Amino acid sequence: MKRWYLFYYQKFIKGQQVADLLPTDEKSHKVGGFLEMPDIFGLVPWFHHIHIISKCKTLDEALFYVNIVAKEGWSRSYLENQVTAKLFSRQGALVNNFDKTLPEPHNDLAKELLKDPYNFEFLTMKERYDEHDLEDALVQNITRFLLELGQGFSFVGRQMELQMPNGQAFFPDLVFYHIPQHRYVIVELKAVNFIPEFAGKLNFYVTAADELLRGEGDNPSVGLVICKSSDKTIVEWSLKDIQKPLGVATYQLQEVVERTVKEIALRNKKKEK
Questions:
Q1: Torsion over CA of 250, 254, 255 and 260, rounded to 10 degrees?
Q2: What are 210-255's pLDDT values in tens digits?
Q3: What single-letter DSSP state applies at residue 220?
Q4: pLDDT band at 266 (very low <50, low <70, confident <90, very high)
Q5: Which of 170, 169, 173 has the alpha carbon at shortest distance from 155?
Q6: CA quadruple 165, 166, 167, 171: dihedral positive or negative?
Q7: Sign of CA dihedral 56, 154, 112, 226
Q8: What is the number of other CB atoms lying within 10 angstroms of the CB of residue 186?
Q9: Rounded CA gap, 170 and 184, in Å?
Q10: What is the per-residue pLDDT for 265?
């Protein structure tokens, strides 16, 4: 308990005030020279607090997890996984055009929704794979993928048909719905580096989703390109004149090289020698 107190108090007196990092209705304040504990701290279980102060290096990071645990009711194991996966540094880190295409507070909400990079190390991929292989692997591991996306996501469909009034149909890779924010998230997967054409295609898919899927009470849909790598300047220029809210993120995975039977046999033969 002393360690918990010192973590927040020392960082409070040395840096930015805790009050500036908490929701507006949870501002802490000094009473008689002492720092009063914010009410939101009481919504976080004690062992969650212990893990947060043990693993977080900054006040901003610690309060990020305090706020999200109180808001979404994370279990201790889920918190540990997200801290290990460095959610704080990834959340809202992707290049996007949300400030220009979404009104407040939807622009900030959309930033909280997405991250960069996405951790796909739960996949087992062959040495040479394409977008179809990546899509297959993610759908086969949809539970793990949903956990990586974050709480609140619901899987709607793969290659979901978006039929135009003239009968022509288009098929985005993956469609999700974020229940707390009441919005569709259209995902395009790319097993290559980002190129500007990806933004134009996804812009159309998001428009189609708003026209064909979005219902009364739904917020504007957002689009997400998840690609192998990207150049920030190219992404920013690609999104500059796009009218729909889009973000571009990368992914990380551990590629596993497929060895043929002959290669394995040759390796064993060398060992015997």
A1: -170
A2: 999 999 999 999 999 999 988 889 999 999 999 999 999 999 887 5
A3: P
A4: low
A5: 173
A6: negative
A7: positive
A8: 29
A9: 16
A10: 55
